[in-house]
Every structure is written in structure tokens, then in C-alpha cells.
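Page 42, continued from yesterday. The earlier attempt failed because a stray header line got pasted into the input along with the sequence. Redoing it now with the clean sequence only.
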Amino acid sequence: MAKSGNKKAAGRYGYLIAAIGFALVMVLNFFLVNWIQNRSMSTFDVISKESKFVNSANGQLQTINENFMEMIAQVGMLEQHNGTIDALFPAVKGALDNYDKMEGHSELSKRRFKHARAYIEAYEQKIVAYQNQINLMESAPAEEKAAFYAKLPDIYEEEIAPLQSAASQMLTATIGSANNAASERTDSITANMNLVRVLMIALLVVGEIAIILAGRFRRRANEEISRKSAQFADASSKLMRSREKMEDIAVTSILTGLKNRYALEQDIGDRLAEEQFNLAVFDMDNFRSINDTYGYDFGDEYLSQVAERLRSEFDQFADIYNITGNEFCFVFKRTVSDTQALRLVDSIAAVMSSPYTIFNLTVQLSVSAATYHYLAGDCLNVNSLLVKMDNVLRNAKRAGGGQILQVVNI
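This time it went through. C-alpha cells are written below.
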């Protein structure tokens, strides 16, 4: 009887030890996971705020640049452009001040932010100086005013655009440095998590000695772990598929199915410094009249048909991008000669300006185009390349549209 009582007592104490050990493991797990989660949330919160301030400043700089380009092109109301520019520069400085007040920036982020701020100050000085000259020219004689505006595009390309581009690149690099620093902190958190796992395993091994006395419960625990692992694997697979779909959407025009401007930047951004190639940008003249007359659904179907035909006839000769609503960019492949590229430009313009039947209505628009035999180092980035081509496109449209003009390297 005594031995039987001892066995029962040992059984009861075994379950009690197992329960206490499991409870300790769970409590420790709760506090450690909560601590690691708080550190992770704090890191991501800081990065989110930094990105918000820097991206805000970058976007406002882009708006300033667009308004100044419209002033150069004499598009829109001068007073409105002046008001927008005067209001946005303080907003840019405010966003940068908010970023600068945040603590914990890496040394590399600080240096890049300092360079970005210097470029922005130089950019502001240039913009304000020529903005004042533009305002003064409003009361100048017509010939003097025309001569002044004729020089502005070259001044912009040589003195202003490089500063804006450099400032934008430095702001982007600042966030890149911050993300790298965050990645290092995340690695540290991961290391802590691994340490927690090691401690957990050690505690579980000790607890397992007691849990052997309650073996029938271990099978259920293992089945639960297997089920959770399968759910986690399924969730990870779904997350991976969703991420791939999001990446495809980010570089593809939903309307036409062609690659968009972001894809163009990814594809040729690294080629600008070292390669030469042929490219062309096409814009359908007076396309807005289609939307105004027949509605946006009609215009969307029109663009969709044009894109499908371009893809079927010219995909083997060039990479095709739908960079804005009715603007298409062709980057001709290396196997296409300069002469062949010029012939293809004529063919593309003919296809885009041919009649299309949309919802039982036949419409036809002329097309303006800018071609560019790009030489290595002509442009700092894709944005400045497109600005140069858009300027030529505007000239073609001012001349009545339906023309193909060539970008002249200066």
C-alpha cells in the first residue's frame, strides 16, 4: 500500500512540476515576446515617420519644379505659380526640420541629409532668382521678353534641374541609409529572438522530463504544433503570392497592361551613364477632347486598343512603356540599328494615328513624337531624360501636332 501511495504521489508531483514548469515558460515567453515586439514596433514607427517627412519634402520639391517648368513654358497663371512656389519652400523646410529633430539618425544618414539640405538651399536660391526675373519680364518689351524666355529652357537644364535632381537623390539616399540602419536593428532584434528561442528550448527540455509522466498529453501538443506549422506555411505562401502580385502591379499600367514609368526607371536607370541607345516618346494630340466628348470609358477603351496593337506589332523591336495616360515610350533594342529605329518611329506614329472603332464609333487622332539618340552620360537620371523629351514634344504640339521632332544633344 505504501509503495502504491508513493507512486500516486510521484504521479501527482510529476504533473504539478510539469504544470509549474509550463506556466513559468509561458509567463517568460509572454514578457520576452512583448519586449521584443515593443522594440520592433518602435523601430518601424521611427522609420515610418522619417519616410513621411522626407517623402513629403521630396514630393513638394517635385511640385515646385513642375510649377517652375510651367512658368518657363508660359503655361497657366503666373500669379498662381508664384503663390505655389512661395508656399511650398517653407513647407519643404518644415518637413526637413521635423526629420532633423528626430533622434537616432545614423552618421551616414546625417551626412546625406546635410548634402540634401545644401542642394535644396542652392535650388531655392536659383528658383527665387529666376522667378524674380520672370516677374520683372512681365512688364518688359515683347522682344526682350521673348528673348529671355527663349533662354530659360537651357538655363533650367544647366543650372536648376541638376540641383533638383541631386536634392531628390540625396533625400532618397537619406531614407535608404535609415532603412539600412533599421535593418541592422532588426537583425539585433532577430538575434534576441533567437536567444529567447534557445532559452525556451532549454526550459522546455527541462520541463519535458516531468512531462514524460503525462505522455498522453504530449501527442496532442505535437499535433497542435503540426497544425499551427501547416497554417503558418500556408499563410507564408499566400503572403509571398500577394507580394509578387503587388510588385507586378507597381510596375504595370492597369489600363493598358504595358510597363509604366517606374518600370522604365528600373530598366534604363543604370544604363544612362555607360550606354547609347535609341528611344522615342509618342503623345496623342488633343486626347482630352476624346474624354470630354465621349467620356472616360470611351477614352480608356481607345488607349487599350492602341496599346494592344502596339504590343502586337512592335514588341519584338522595342520595350514599350505607358508612362502616362496617353503617352507611350519605346526603348529600341540593341539589335535595332539607328536607321531602322527611325523607320520604326514612322511606323509607330502611323499605327497610333490610324482610325480605331470604339463602341461602334470610329475616331482618329494625330500623334506627336520626340526621338532621341541617347549618348552615354547625356542625362543624370531618367527624370531629366523625360523632361528633355517632353520639352521637344511640347514644341511639336505648339507647331500644330502630328510631327516627329528629334532631341538635339547640346
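Notes: Residues 34-189 form a domain with the Four Helix Bundle (Hemerythrin (Met), subunit A) fold (CATH 1.20.120.1730).
Reminder to self: strip header lines before submitting.
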